[in-house]
Queue: 3 jobs
Job 1
Amino acid sequence: MTFWFNGDWCDAPAAIRIDDRGFLLGDGVFETILVRNGVPAFLDRHLERLVRGLKLLSINAAPPRDLFAIIGELATRSGAKDGDASLRLTVTRGPGERGLAFPRPDASTPTVLITLTRAGPRQLNERSLFVSEHIRAVSGVAAQCKTPAYLDNVLAQNAAIAAGADDAIMLNPAGNVACAAAANIFVITDGVVATPPASDGALPGVVRGVLLAEAAAAGAVIEERSISQEVLRSGAIFLTSSLIGLAPARLDGSTDTGANELFIRLDACYQRALAEDLRQAGVA
């Protein structure tokens, strides 16, 4: 597997130091980015969230200045120049001495790792959902940015798979919906689209942000508000993430399907925004 690691192109199976705090403590942030035909989608939005996370963690690092060129080269080297691929950009605090205290700035250098793997064709089938017993925190770093400390999501997702579902709904301590294990969640009721606010534990997802900005173009109103399980079961559900885009979903016992007319309009609106972003990025 070819990857970019701290400024070098590598093909070795291992590169992370055993004292790297990202490996030992989850001390870092990451982004998962859709790459189509060698061009990253919504890169500015992803980097904005990454930089916000680095600042929140007091990690003195920045994405590589030539990141766009690195992604293009990585797509070529990985044989993923055509079609869709999933890029993972991970930044950790880097190596440090044992313990929780931050290493001295002059004693550690952040680790930056970029990997790319082919993604399968977009799945348009309805996804089945499972309500997880793993609670989503509404405060703290994990609720505000993507960190390698993803264990609650990992356990929730695998419990869903064991139950025969595709993804897990994670509730917050108040019992309201926060998100899915691997996606943001939306519900359509009476022609109005709702999604949980960040204060309820929703991660500020990139596709979620695009929809909030572009919904009016689809003739839709999206409200950020608390969503109970009862409301979720009474509406049409769909999920969003960088790799799936928009995907209809169903919870056992729900009375509606996510693939309704309003969902179709929102999906078309997002696909237009995605195509325009990729076009502009490819020209730049």
Job 2
Amino acid sequence: MIFRPKYITFDCYGTLTNFRMHEVAYQIYAGQLPPERLNQFVKEFGAYRLDEVMGDWKPYDQVLKSAISRTCKRHGLTYRDEDGQKFYDAVPTWGPHADVPEPLTRVGNKIPLVILSNAMNEQIHSNVRKLEAPFHKVYTAQDAGAYKPRLQAFEYMLDQLGCSPEDILHVSSSPRYDLMSAHDLGIVNKVWVNRGHEPRANAAYGFAEINDINGLPALVGL
């Protein structure tokens, strides 16, 4: 795959920023569940976060607090709102995966980079600064009024950029949040960054696979 798009669009958390939600969960609940139960707790917390973003938009702190509250209920733990807030407050402190800044900057000097993230505006810009790369635009679920994997989020981004699905290359480590929806919307050129936090997507969704962002420049002829 060598394709020179008008824009390269990215998921941020997990793909570029080291998404450390599981670490916060371990810190809070390690003394309340045995290790094997805690691992399952973290997995189910991820599932509830996905479920929470499938409906109408609401602030991300509400997404996280509802998801962790439902997870606690499932495991017989007492939910505390201050614990839910810790997840939200942690997000803007996270930095990039080690492989991100250099190749992302190299690509960004030649092709405009865009982020579409399931974030609040007050969170995302701290994370983007830590990526140390030039970004043309940064769009959030708050801007779009919808979270990924809803198509509305992608439609908002395309409308803002004034381009068609065929004009972009979308890059994500998440088949469920990004690649499947991008496929449904007609985004032909997609890259899966296999960071190991989701099962492999069905090849029918049509994507190139790389292990980290070091593999991206070659895909766009750089």
Job 3
Amino acid sequence: MIVLNLKNYEETYRRIDLLVDSAREAMQTTGVRVVVVPPCTHLSRARYANKEVFAQHVSPVEPGSHTGEVLPEAVKDLRIKGSMINHSEKRCPELVKDAVKRLKKLNLESLVCAESPEECKKFARYRPSFIAIEPPELIGSGKSISSKKPKVISESLDAVHSVSTEIPLLVGAGVSTPKDVEKGLALGASGVLLASAFVKANEPLKFLQKLAKPFEKFM
């Protein structure tokens, strides 16, 4: 599984259609699940061209007099498949439990981001669809977790599996090459989460096709 967080880069808005189409085509040509995560303002536009779309964040507030929140019900209404929760740039650990519960109630997937093996274990107790380990100091650094902190991957996998062996672990932070992906998969991860390397790639489709190549060894 490859999850593409489009964040709010200038390139995201300038070529959103290219990025969304590339994600869809990469999945079709490689057989690897590729999920695109656009800004909330572009969820509907992304979903028009791609069925594999997650929101960047949801708040577990009930429908009512709230302003500036993205509700799970709104995501469901747009036929979005799920949402990230607690990304390092949108930390809300106190909301994770309720957000996962609300998404699950609506039959939506949840991808909870964690900064450490300890957080991975904590969040695994809520039974999200996926957990992603992302050491914050490596995000956007160009230095991959697979190369710089492989032990964190192993420890995070052990932490998650100590609670449930049915929750896939994704690895993120600095992932940008097929080698990064292969190392993560070899350590037991089920996929990767990345952002700038894809969003800023000259040829995003070719970039994804190369990135997906290592999955052939583990499928």
